[in-house]
Amino acid sequence: MDKDNLIELKVLGITRSEVQPGAYALLLENADSTPDVARRIPIVVGAAEAQSIAVRLEQVVPSRPMTHDLFVSMFHIYGIQLEGVTIYSFKDGVFASFLHLTNGTTHVDLDSRTSDAIAIALRSGAPIYTTPEVMKLTSYEWRRDGNYKPQKPVRLEDLPVEKLERRMQQYVDKEEYEKAARVQKIIASKLNPSQDDD
Known about the structure:
The chain has about 200 residues and is α+β, with helices and mostly antiparallel strands. It contains 6 helices and 8 strands, in the order βββααβββαβαβαα. Helix content is about 35%, strand content about 30%. Strands 6-5-4-7-1-2-3-8 form an 8-stranded mixed sheet. A hairpin with a 6-residue loop joins strand 2 and strand 3. The N and C termini lie far apart (about 50 Å).
């Protein structure tokens, strides 16, 4: 696992999601944050995953092992070490992560849901990382004094064609045809830039 281009994160806690009823938001923050300024990433997780993470954060010992406890126990039994977790992708509103595992000779990157990866990392004491790209796409700036730095809005013209096509389909599905037509025009200009001179 190459840590040179990764950003280490720490888990702040779990709160109820304001976006999805019945879901929870896992809040991550850059590990080198200061008490006054930080970059934070909210990740929506299900109730079961939220409970598993909260139990570990609050150092509650359940009467019976939870699923993530079983994973960590199996790692120990078979001599597997979790070197770290990397949140490597954010696509269509979904985060994806790798568990970086080793038995001392073999190294494996195991694809995982991010909520599971973090629940296991907390139990293993393993570090959590993300890429600069994911951090840029998903984080926001938190300031204790409330003076947030406004982020530059993303222009439709700056999006790749693939994302524009998805956006256009969303507008069509919602019957917002004027917006869809605008996106279609931007797609056409990207695919045929020579027509812009007409």
